[in-house]
């Protein structure tokens, strides 16, 4: 049987590492990316220095500050991380067109057909890892195996700066000693159930009958059985289109002023528009999300007559949706998401096609200026 050769690349503490790379004075300091320590946001990334204090992703910023008050707390800079992610993806594409990004900082690569050109899977994996280090001054952990499950597991075992190969004839030797929590789908509740049955390692799980696991966990029981044997037939999906692009803001203090909130919506719309254009996407459905002071969350959606990537169109529709929202209570969060994305589109002719074309030209000019002179070099003002 001709086994696939799959690589999983996972950048190490990506957001924090990019910040430390761009400001070498941060290298010896614990760095937390997520905002101000007194904000109500959560940690998006923590450097390995910060992790020594027990700080991890999704932890409240206030808790991160309590654990390490001398850490450097930085805001999230998605446009910068996105740009670096595109540079990493260009390295991937040198070796295979079959790349499936999972997020800005990790991806699967199917290099089955690439070994005749670039050498063994080991050689390709090491070369990618070395190029990321040499060209971008960042470290990545890499796993090489015959399927997605094993390669992702391998990339996580020796972080940071890890490199692990799972040989096809040593899969069970690799899997058996690992805890059952390492298997996809084994969360806290499933782990507790397995521990009650004295199932603590993958070896323990592998010895159970598939029918018994299905009886305990339904359809997911069959998946647990397969993964415990190292079986995962899912292909790397290079043509997967992002389902949505969005952003939301959690305020330091609750806000009830509609003008202030609409100004924040403008910032979000501009950010989403630029990300769409950078990835050559356009979207058709706009969703507004608000969260009140009492944590009640409300959303409103509208589907456009044609796809768009223009800031002004996104903002105008967002404001229309926002006017349907009650402000009897202040808001703690506001956000926008564009759904139904496509990278294939045709211009729809209309009486207003020329003004729209001018708008697109202006938008592209603004993108170029920001790219050259920085995000704050030019800003959009509210015109509604």
From TrEMBL:
PROSITE patterns: UMUC. GO terms for molecular function: damaged DNA binding; DNA-directed DNA polymerase activity; magnesium ion binding. Its cofactor is Mg(2+). Pfam families: IMS (PF00817), IMS_C (PF11799), IMS_HHH (PF11798). It is found in: Cytoplasm. Poorly processive, error-prone DNA polymerase involved in untargeted mutagenesis. Copies undamaged DNA at stalled replication forks, which arise in vivo from mismatched or misaligned primer ends. These misaligned primers can be extended by PolIV. Exhibits no 3'-5' exonuclease (proofreading) activity. May be involved in translesional synthesis, in conjunction with the beta clamp from PolIII. HAMAP family: DNApol_IV. This is DNA polymerase IV. It comes from Candidatus Desulfosporosinus infrequens.
């Amino acid at each position: 049987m001709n086994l696939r050769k799959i690589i999983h690349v996972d950048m190490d503490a990506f957001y924090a590492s990019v910040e430390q790379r761009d400001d070498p004075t941060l290298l010896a300091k614990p760095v937390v990316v997520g905002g101000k320590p007194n904000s109500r946001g959560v940690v998006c990334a923590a450097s390995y220095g910060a992790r020594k204090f027990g700080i991890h992703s999704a932890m409240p910023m206030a808790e991160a500050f309590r654990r390490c008050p001398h850490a450097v707390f930085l805001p999230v800079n998605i446009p910068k991380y996105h740009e670096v992610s595109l540079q990493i993806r260009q390295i991937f594409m040198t070796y295979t067109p079959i790349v499936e990004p999972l997020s800005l900082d990790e991806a699967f690569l199917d290099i089955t057909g690439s070994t005749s050109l670039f050498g063994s899977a080991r050689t390709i994996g090491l070369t990618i890892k070395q190029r990321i280090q040499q060209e971008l001054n960042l470290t990545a952990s890499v796993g090489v195996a015959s399927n997605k499950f094993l390669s992702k597991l391998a990339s996580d075992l020796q972080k940071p700066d890890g490199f692990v190969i799972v040989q096809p004839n040593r899969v069970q030797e690799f899997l058996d000693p690992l805890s059952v929590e390492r298997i996809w789908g084994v969360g806290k509740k499933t782990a507790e159930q397995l521990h009650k049955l004295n199932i603590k390692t993958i070896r323990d799980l592998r010895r159970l009958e598939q029918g018994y696991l299905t009886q305990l966990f339904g359809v997911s029981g069959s998946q647990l059985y397969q993964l415990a044997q190292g079986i995962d037939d899912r292909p790397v999906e290079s043509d997967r289109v992002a389902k949505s692009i969005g952003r939301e803001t959690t305020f330091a203090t609750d806000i009830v002023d509609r003008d202030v909130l609409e100004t924040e919506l403008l910032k979000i719309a501009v950010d989403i528009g630029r990300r769409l254009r950078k990835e050559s996407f356009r979207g058709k459905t706009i969703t507004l999300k608000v969260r009140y002071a009492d944590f009640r969350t409300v959303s409103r959606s509208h589907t456009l007559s044609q796809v768009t990537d223009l800031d002004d169109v996104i903002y105008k529709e967002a404001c229309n949706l926002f006017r349907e929202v009650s402000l009897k209570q202040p808001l703690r969060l506001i956000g926008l998401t564009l759904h139904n994305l496509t990278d294939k589109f045709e211009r729809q002719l209309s009486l207003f096609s020329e003004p729209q074309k001018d708008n697109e030209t202006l938008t592209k000019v603004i993108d170029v200026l920001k790219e050259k002179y920085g995000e704050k070099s030019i800003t959009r003002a509210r015109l509604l």
